[in-house]
Amino acid sequence: MGLLTILKKMKQKEKEVRLLMLGLDNAGKTTILKKFNGEDIDTISPTLGFNIKTLEHRSFKLNIWDVGGQKSLRSYWRNYFESTDGLIWVVDSLDRLRLQDCKQELQSLLQEERLAGATLLVFANKQDIPGALTSEAIKEAMELENIQTHHWLIIGCSAVTGQNLLEGIDWIIDDIASRIFTMD
Amino acid sequence: MYKNINTPGILAASKTTMDSGTKLSAPATSTALDVEGKWNIVSERLQKREDERLSEIQKKKEQKSETAALQESTNFFNTEFNKEKVAIEAGLSECDRVDKANLIDRFDLLSLSLQKMQKFLAESTMFLPPYEVRLAQEAISKLQTQIQEKRDDLFPKKRFAFKSKKKVASSEKQIAKTLPENVCREKVEVALTNCKYEDLKDQSLEKFEDEINNRDVALARLENCTVKLYGAPSAVHMNKLNNCRVFTGPVSSSIFITECQDCVFVLPCQQLRIHTTKNSQFYIHVTSRAIIEDCSGVKFGPFNWKYPGLNDHYKISGLSRSKNSWNDIDDFNWLASDTHSPNWSLIPEGEFVKSWDEQIC
Q1: Do B118 and B249 lie in a common domain?
Q2: Where are the transmembrane segments (chain A) (predicted)?
Q3: Is A69 labelled as part of a ligand binding site?
């Protein structure tokens, strides 16, 4: 048994899951992260760089990486792909003008070899605001049905009210767990 | 220890001690010695049994770890994996010869064994080198598509369709193919929110609280317009404004501005993002930090628009009036902290516009 095997076994015992949260700027990635972690969301500035949070949830240790979505930061996204178990793609459900951009960015991510095994959760954020596009409409506009390469789910949510955040995270953990932690 | 006393072996031993004692009728001291000796024998026997038991356990443990080590080797995985793979491939090639009635069961069986393979792989990932894992994953996905193809081949899906309509659809597709970009663009922009102004020129536009409170508002492709939003929207998106003046009440979350030029924006909000905008002025109240990206010639001053009802709208939006970082802007294209970004500047205090009403009229 090599050292690597021992390390892998330890990781398995701890049930660590690495989630990468991406999306265009103004989607609400940091707000989702902070709300999920029970922090104040009124003082969040646009992310200049990235945030990492490690939290315990359902006996899993979640490492959530939230990387800024500004255009000038997107070229750095690939630095965070390595050993990602799940990709959380956040969409601003009000931003109808940039849905096209949003779709293209996601599609190029899905072609990434290093994200090939990752589960994809799409959060259609800002559902608390009247007039937001429904998750169904976003699914159609982004042609999510065509995704064959990844397990995926789209779910409408609101980072402000916290609606559906838990449901989404639970789904992605379950999906990852069924792939990685089949030993238990 | 008490438990051991009840075992038959010890009972038998104590019985013999008693027998010998009565037979010899030896003095009390020798009987005591005798008893002690017997006890020694018994405890020795006990010790021996205990040792045997322990060595048995040890042996079993070793055996188990040996088999585990055997099962946790790449070779073992490869042989087992290939066995399964060959079995599935054989099963697939037989499908052509199997009765239609049994085919469904046959396919179920095949997918079941494929699932087993997948589980086996998942269990083995911890000791396999990444290369082997990838090969195995590729093999599995290949098998999966093979099974799917075979299934599609043997059970063609019945699609419900009107034949005459199909033709129309295909001709539509051709049009779409020739103009893919236009079609996509139209699709996205037509879907703008209800609460909006778009494609207007030389106009003065106003919206009031009943329409915009807690909603999102969109302004797109306006030229030489003045827009006033008297209320507390949740979010505002602005795109391609040219030579416009935009006034808003307090926006509870974020404002997003792209591709504008020669404009004046007067607005309070929680977050402000400004992209690809040129030569514009911003009189703002931002409770977090405003950011610019790909901008040039943008100037900032403090929010100073007043209208009746502004206080109420502040309350609805929940914005803190005490915190305003209008003069602290992050430029995503200028990360040096020691020199100021050339892309933005502050409006000198003496040049602040004092009364907007005069300016607009």
Answers
A1: no
A2: none
A3: yes
